[in-house]
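Changelog note: in this version the structure field was regenerated for every chain. One regenerated record is shown below for reference.
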Amino acid sequence: MTRVLIPVFLIVVAFMVFTVADIALIDHRRIRTLPRGVWIIVAIVLPILGGVLWIAVGRVRSTDAAAQGSRRRAPLAPDDDPAFLGKLNREKDLESRIEQLEKELRDLDDDTPQG
């Protein structure tokens, strides 16, 4: 009897350790339903059922996460990025303001009497 129970016990413990490690190391955006700490407690208290629930319900599969990421892509080119275009506009405005001030200074220098 113990020849059967020891390997089963080792398999259960290994599965529990795998589950707890997976919960602890996975990106927080891929955890759903319960917070990370609660999932760890469930996996420890209910080793087999907790692990199965974690895999079935608690984690977002990497393929699903990749699909979510593809919907929220970053701009491909600088001219597609509104922040970059806004920065260019601010720099352009700043340069034109500097040019205007330099022109006003030259005009003031030209207006001073030479004497």
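Spot check on this record: The CA atoms of residues 9 and 113 lie 100 Å apart. The mean pLDDT is 86.
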